[in-house]
Specification:
The complex is a heterodimer of chains A (117) and B (112).
Chain A (H helix, E strand, L loop, with lengths): L4 E3 L2 E4 L5 E6 L6 E7 L6 E7 L2 E5 L7 E4 L6 E5 L8 E8 L11 E2 L3 E5 L1
Parallel strand pairs in A: 2-11
Antiparallel strand pairs in A: 1-3, 3-8, 4-5, 4-9, 5-6, 7-8, 9-10, 9-11
Chain B lengths: L2 E4 L4 E4 L4 E3 L1 E4 L5 E7 L5 E7 L5 E4 L2 E4 L9 E3 L8 E8 L6 E3 L3 E6 L1
Parallel strand pairs in B: 2-12
Antiparallel strand pairs in B: 1-4, 3-9, 5-6, 5-10, 7-8, 8-9, 10-11, 10-12
Classes of the chains: A mainly beta (117), B mainly beta (112).
Chain lengths: 117, 112
């Protein structure tokens, strides 16, 4: 059973650099989500894709953040001109969206921990 | 906006003790409610869920009942084990949205 995978698991970068994270969802899942989790807090929603379409974005997703899912399979999250406040765990999740009302389980990956120096 | 409030942790219990972790929510309409668990070094896993009022979610000895009148979804287990040590997150999804809204999490430590 292949779950959600994320790469890299850890990333240390200097302020002002760009970083990109990758998420590979469970293979048959059509929905993919990105969340951010800071220390001592619950995950916060960033954005969500259904197939290749980005359907919902949080106000947390500033202009420096961009996410893509070009072929409806894997997704990338890029942060440009990183700031120290971007340091967090970035979580990816996927689900098999089967209906209008979302009660489908979101399966989470292990996360990418970003540290901005 | 929608929000979830969990009891502050950490919670420390002895093995076989009774567990309650309180969770209340604020939302318009009728959200679906979830408990996720994060074991040390692992990703978030769904523990249980309930999609409408008075539904009871249950899994691995844990239970939670969707109480619309008190806007609550408290997590309970009759007899905890050391292996239940983890961080527990209460969450909701509002109808028409795909985003999970999480509480801050409650860290549970069970001592032998």
């Amino acid at each position: 059973d292949t779950g959600v995978s994320q790469n890299p698991r850890h990333k240390i970068t200097k302020r002002g650099q760009n970083v990109t994270f990758r998420c590979d969802p469970i293979s048959e899942h059509n929905r993919l989500y990105w969340y951010r989790q800071t220390l001592g807090q619950g995950p916060e929603f960033l954005t969500y894709f259904q197939n290749e379409a980005q359907l919902e974005k949080s106000r947390l997703l500033s202009d420096r953040f961009s996410a893509e899912r070009p072929k409806g399979s894997f997704s990338t999250l890029e942060i440009q001109r990183t700031e120290q406040g971007d340091s967090a765990m970035y979580l990816c999740a996927s689900s098999l969206g089967t209906g209008v009302r979302s009660t489908d389980t979101q399966y989470f990956g292990p996360g990418t921990r970003l540290t901005v120096l | 906006g929608d929000s979830v409030t969990q009891m502050e942790g950490p919670v420390t219990l002895s093995e076989e003790a009774f567990l309650t972790i309180n969770c209340t929510y604020t939302a318009t309409g009728y959200p679906s409610l979830f408990w996720y668990v994060q074991y040390p070094g692992e990703g978030l896993q769904l523990l249980l869920k309930a999609t409408k009022a008075d539904d009871k979610g249950s899994n691995k000895g844990f239970e939670a009942t969707y109480r619309k009148e008190t806007t609550s979804f408290h997590l309970e287990k009759g007899s905890v084990q050391v292996s239940d040590s983890a961080v527990y997150f209460c969450a909701l999804i509002q109808g028409g949205s795909e985003k999970l809204v999480f509480g801050k999490g409650t860290k549970l430590t069970v001592n032998p």
